[in-house]
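Pasting two entries for a bug report.
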Amino acid sequence: MSTHNSWQPLGPAILFAPADRPERFAKAADRADMVILDLEDGCRAENREAAREAIASCDLDPARTIVRVNPPEVEDYAADIDMLRGTAFRQVMLPKASSAQQVDELVAALGEKTQVIALIETPLGVMRAEELARADGVVALFWGAEDLVAGLAGTSSRFSEAEAALVPGRIHAGSYRSVAVHTRSHVHLAAAAHGKASLDSIYVNISDANGLAAEAADAAALGFAATVCIHPGQVPTIRQAYRPSDEEIDWARRLLAEAEENTGAFSFGGQMVDAPLFRQAEAIARRAAVTG
């Protein structure tokens, strides 16, 4: 089983685009760092055949394009895979992922160059997050809150304003409930433990830019590779949240330059620099590079 891969998204803002709205493909690709052409929830079932034709004939850059197929247990899945065989698109999001076998079968169908983003959004998928992270074909884990809560017979992944008003200061409107917090952490840890990237979930309240900014900043600080979004207007907020401050960039660059002149631990700015601090500086430099 693989324990490391070099796949990283080309930037922190990844935008969903409905596969049955091909007139939006180019705009989505232009606005975001990467685009997800969605054949599953974002595509009406009766439009999927036409949507597959639209993907097969589009000229988007395969390096900046992910295709979300339908889950393996859905009839449309086989048709999705057949369509992808005739294209150059090999970054594939597998929804409701729950086993390494599903990943292996997907890679076998599309070839060894297939890069699978496993979408963990069911109770079983959460319990098998580490198995999915270990799978050779998986390059990243992405978690989803709403399908997960539905699978628990729940109704909402976040606290409402009314609930927050009952206990002021203890919970905040829009913040995740405990199961979602656990899942986010568990999926992120599973990905990191096996050298895979992790993508943070969508923020559904598109009018709440401050809430998105806070959640994306938290994701960046924790080491998520990107935040997935559902509206072009969310892209600038995510990019800004992931961009380190000028002070952080300057600190990281000076530390990394100093590290080239030293071996082992050394003193920098009154701190002893060892491997963890060095990796933090590398992470800041990477985020600065992809956020401009």
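Entry 2 (this is the one that rendered wrong in the viewer):
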Amino acid sequence: MGKRTLLTLIVGSLLILALPAQNRLALAGERQPWNDPEHALIIDAYELNSIDWDALLQDTRISGFVSKASDGLPEDYACKTSDHSGDTVGHCKTMWRKYAVSRELFRTRRLIAKSNGILWGAYHLGRPGNPIDQANHFLDYADPKADELMVLDIDGLDPQQFMSLADAQIFSIHIKERTGRYPILYANDVVARFIADHRNDYQILSRLPLWYARYKPDVEGTFPLGNWTGYAMWQFSSADNCSSRRCPYRVAGTLPDIDVNMASMTKTQLARIWPQGDLVPPRIDTPSMLASAPGPAAKMQVTALNYQDF
């Protein structure tokens, strides 16, 4: 190799390294749209996520914060006079204390976020149990305001661990009856595809705006998916694909276990639609789509527990 050729290669390599990270990734063929500064970023957290607010607020990309609110049915306060779901009285008291502390943390985080211009939302983790009681629990816990996002989180299809899809519909309808707005739906790829494939059975659930969790460089080719022509938000980073060595996006003031999401719009545009509340329009299958639909043998097999599709 001649000296001139070697020098050209070295200079070219240095120029590539000098590019911003998102441009280097583009050259590598990875789209990773969250690197576009025009796309609003949203974090979601639960009570055990550590957050340094002074550091986090320095990141002007962070436009929204969705906090875990309720989880299934409420904890039992009357530990000595109730059956407290078979737990010991001591365990019942411990769970109530944790529950009470988490509610105070929720309210504190909401105050900090909203006072600093960050959009606020809350989610309910759906569990087995009466869906109307769970909806009332969520509304009592989160006390959602008209400018706040409401979310139903369905983490899997195992009815022993998570709210069934039939109950999720009942939950969503009850939220609508009490607030005038539907929640949006948080679902991973397995759950979202199952709902899309059975959208005639879940005509409300399949039309809730989708908060889509999937950890890939891009999900553009996923849609349309059932009634969903796209996502309302996309969770692209979590503890599953973020470590101390490599992470799609690091949020200052947080650890690698924080969930990071994006919306394909600016913060100003996101603020206009943030509270959501409506259903997405139904998609009508064309004859060609019906002809190419998979038969029963080709349908997805649902296991007892479904994990994220990485």
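Dev reply: Rendering is fixed now. As a check, the viewer should reflect this: Residues 8-29, 295-310 have pLDDT under 50 and may be disordered.
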